[in-house]
Amino acid sequence: MNRELLKIKNSSSSSIEKEKQKLQKLLDSHLMTDENWVNFKQAFQEEYPEYYNGLMSDFSDLTESNLRIITLLKLELSNQEISSLLGITIDAVKKSKQRLRKRFGQKYEELFVGN
């Protein structure tokens, strides 16, 4: 599907393999529904606990919509892949990214730093 998903699939760490499979399954099933988003977010939190907790601590006012875009960008998905997963247009993805950049300015890059 894309580079990051291939990295996840090919990771040698057996202790997190199950979580990676769960993330992959959720990504494959699309995140349009609220239920799928909740399941994906939980799997993402389990896979990247330090990153997610830091994100929530440093950027506590993020909306669920912001989190969807940020977590998918963290997985290095393309605008096309994000639009397909969320059931929105590529332009909507680009606009969301622009709004995040405008809102956080120089701190924008910090949204993606961490484990």
From TrEMBL:
GO terms for biological process: regulation of DNA-templated transcription. Gene3D superfamilies: Winged helix-like DNA-binding domain superfamily/Winged helix DNA-binding domain (1.10.10.10). It comes from the Bacteria. SUPFAM superfamilies: C-terminal effector domain of the bipartite response regulators. InterPro entries: Sig_transdc_resp-reg_C-effctor, WH-like_DNA-bd_sf. GO terms for molecular function: DNA binding. This is Uncharacterized protein.
